[in-house]
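Protocol step 4 of 6.
Sequence for Thymidylate synthase complementing protein (Sphingopyxis flava) entered exactly as in the expression construct, tag removed. Do not edit the line below.
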Amino acid sequence: MTTISSTTILRSRNAAAPDKVLSTLLLRYPRCIHAEFMTHRVFSRNAASSRAIPVEKLIKDVEENPFIPVYWGANQRGMQAGDEIDAPLYLQGASHFDMIDRCYDPISKEAGWLHARDQAISAARAFAKAGYHKQIVNRLLEPFAHITVLVSGTEWDNFLELRDHEAAEPHIQILAREVRKCLEREDDIQDLEPGEWHLPFVDEKVMEVRPRARGGIHTSDAIKLSVARCASTSYKTVDGFDMTLDKAVELHDRLVGSTPIHASPAEHVAQADGVSRWETYDGEGSDTPIWENKREHGNFIGFRQYRHML
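Step 5 output, structure tokens:
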């Protein structure tokens, strides 16, 4: 069955400008709509990579939870399908050949889709057995696979307006509605004073001075732990975010110390920025904050991305 979900990882409000909320969500959706999601450039993202997932693990996923369309629209001109239809398929190799009518027996659209999946699995196993790398083999499985994506952003309105809309592709409509549910909640938002940190996947108590042995970890270590756990989205499943601090520090230093730098996981970690002053333009509308460190916001507003502070 098709899985489309949005789970809140962490949401933080900048107390200096309460309308600015940074939300980090963990999304799961059919891989076929990933390109559409990627067009929204206001988001920071890390996605599970087909190049990193073992072939048999991805096969198990598409066997147990394949992407199956939720809307079977009729062909027509343009990007949007017509009304749903339930036309049978006459598919060689998927049904019995009727010797009297000299044609294959009809099968349902769902059965035809799963037959195509089974053919892709068979081909993938053959390529893997022949010694081809998973970065090649797994491409055969992608049409039937889901993808896990960690996304952070402060500006969601355009995404919701475009994608939670009847003209949008049906599966990304469902995703947008799941995201909206997360963003409409107010009871799971933490308030951050300027200088405090948004640290996804860090539940440990963060200390500025006290040593780790007294019940917390230093802010610098907490930042590295958060970056490393965000990075693990690319090659682990959701239950892989429990890496130890020592491993996290090693991974963080390898990512940000490499040439070229691999800094996209550092975009999810951010510090609430301060407001230097407020301005009103043309005497109309609400006051606009002038941020102390706007150049370090990246694609956020009101938060300094750790990536731009490196």
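Step 6, annotate. Residues 68-141 form one domain.
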